[in-house]
Design brief:
The structure holds two protein chains of two kinds. By secondary structure, chain A is of the alpha/beta class. Chain A has 14 helices and eleven strands. Chain A has helices at residues 22-37, 52-56, 61-68, 85-99, 118-126, 141-156, 160-174, 188-193, 221-227, 257-270, 287-296, 305-310, 327-331, 335-350; strands at residues 4-11, 44-48, 76-79, 105-111, 196-198, 201-202, 212-220, 233-242, 279-281, 364-371, 376-384. In chain A, strands 3-2-4-7-1-8-11-10-9 form a nine-stranded mixed β-sheet, sandwiched between helices. Chain A has a two-stranded antiparallel sheet with strand order 5-6. In chain A, helix 4 crosses helix 14 (335-350) and helix 7 packs across helix 11. The longest helix of chain A is centred in the N-terminal third of the chain and has 16 residues, at 22-37. By secondary structure, chain B is mainly beta. Chain B has two helices and eight strands, in the order ααββββββββ. Classes of the chains: A alpha/beta, B mainly beta. The A-B interface holds A 117-120, 122-123, 126, 132-140, 142-143, 146-148, 150-151, 154, 195-201, 246-249, 253 and B 9, 12, 30, 55-68, 70, 73, 75-77, 85-89, 100, 111-112, 121, 123, 125.
Amino acid sequence: MRDVAIIGIGMTRFGELWESSIRDLCVEAALACFNDAGIDRLDSITIGSMSSGLFTGQEHLASLVPDYLGRRNVPAVRVESACASGGQAVRTAFLEVASGMSDVVLAIGVEKMTDVSGGEATYALATAADQDYEAFHGVTFPGLYAMMARAHMERFGTTRDQLAQVAVKNHENGSHNPHAQFPFTVTRKQVINSVMIADPLTLLDCSPITDGAAAVLVAPAEMARELQRGPLTVITGIGHATDTISIAHRADLLHLDAIELASSRALGMAGKSIEDIDFAEVHDCFTIAEILVLESMGVVPAGQGGPATLDGLTALDGDFPVNPSGGLKSKGHPVGATGVAQICEAVTQLRGAAGDRQIPNARIALTQNMGGSGGSSVVHIVEAR
Amino acid sequence: MQVPRFWREIPRYYRLEAAACVQCDALHFPPRKICPSCGANAFETVRLSGRGALTTFTIIRTPPSGFTDQAPYAVGIVELDEGVRLMAQITDCDVDTLKTGDRMIAKFRRIREEGRTGVIMYGYKFVPDVGV
C-alpha cells in the first residue's frame, strides 16, 4: 500500500443554512478544499451521506456532485454507514489512493437536514436503528442513548453534573470555531435545566440538527511532498468495525465493541498506543456518547469517563484533549459530514492553524466517527510529518 | 407503511415467536437464519414467556413522526426470564414511578396507526407485572 496524505481540507459553515441546497453545500466545501490544496486535479470522488433521500428527496449524489463540481465523467460513489458515512467516505478515498487505483481523490461528507420538520428529521435519524425491533416501538436516537445514560448512572454512579460537563467543555471549545453552529458557552446548570428530551438527557445533552458539508483531498504522500504546501499530514492508521444494530442484543450495553475494535485496529496499523495520541475528535452525538467512547477506547477505565471529564482530562489544556473543534455538540452534526469534518479539524490542529483552540505541539490525532448507537465505527490516525 | 412489511412480522409482534438454535440452544429474538453464537442454521420456533425484568428505560418526550399523539411514553429494555432482551414501550403505569429491576410482562397492544385510513399496527408492550 502507498502512504496517503491529506493535501486539502474545506468546510461550509455548519448551521441552519436555508439558502443552501445539498448540491450547494457539496460544491462550497469542495471549492474550499481545492483552494486549500492549490491543485486542480481530480481522479475520483467519494461521498458520505446518511440519508439524502429522506432529508431532501435526492439520491444519486454520485452523479449530482461531480456534475455540479464541473467534473462530469469523473467516477464517484456514495457510501453510507449512518452517522459514520463521512468516515467511510474518507476511508474509501484512502483505499483508492493506497491501492494505486487513483491518485487524487476528493472525499465529501454532507447532510442537508433542515428541509424537513423536526419530527421528520427525528424519524429519518431513527432509520439508523433497527426499524422492525427498535424504531417500530417509537424509540428515538436520544432515547437509545438515554437508556445507556441511565444504565451508566446506575452502574457507575455517573452524575448529571459529569454528563453536563461534556457539553460545557465542547461548547467552550466550539466558541473558538468560526464554523460552529452554536459557538456559545453554556453552564452545567443550563445543560441540566434545559428541556427534557429523553430522560435523563436534556436538549443541551444532544447534538443539533444541522446543514453542512466537509471535504478532504487525499493523494499519495510522495505527491504531497512535491506540492510542499505546509506540513505534511499523513493518514497512518484506519480502523473500522461493526456491532449489533439493536442495543438490546449487546453483551454489555455500556461497552461499545465497534469503537474498541476500530480504535485498536487504527492504532495497530499506525504502530501507536492510545497514550501516544495528542488529541482526539470523537463522536459526541450526546454527552453520554463521549463518555462511552473514552471508556471503550481505553482512554479511561470503564465507569471513569464522567469523573475524568469533570477533572478536566479532556479539556483543551488537559492531558487528553477531546473535541477541540467543539465536537458534534457545539460545532453541529450534519450527519454525513461529521466524519469528514473531524479530519478537517485534525489537519487544522496538526498545521498549527487552529487559532484560539490550538493544542500546542499537536503531532498525532485520532478521529472517531460512530454509526447509529455504536453499530459501526471508523477511526483514523492522522500524523504531521 | 405497506401492509406486507407489517404483516410479515406478525408471528413476532403478536406471539413473541423466537428461534432456538438446535446446535447450541442459544435463543434469538427476532429469529435469525444464522446463529451468531455457533454459526449453525437450524432452529426451532419457540414462544417467549413475555415475563422478565426492566434493565433500563427512558421517557420519550420528543417523539418521531407517527408517535406524536402518544408522547410522553416510556421505552425500555426488558430481559426475559429466558435471557432474551427486548426493547418495547412500557405502558399502563405512571412512568415517573418506573425503576430498573421492576418485573414486567408483555401484553398485546396497539402500537400506532397511520391516519384514518392507514394500517393499524399491533404488537407487544410491557406492563408492570403485579403478580395477579
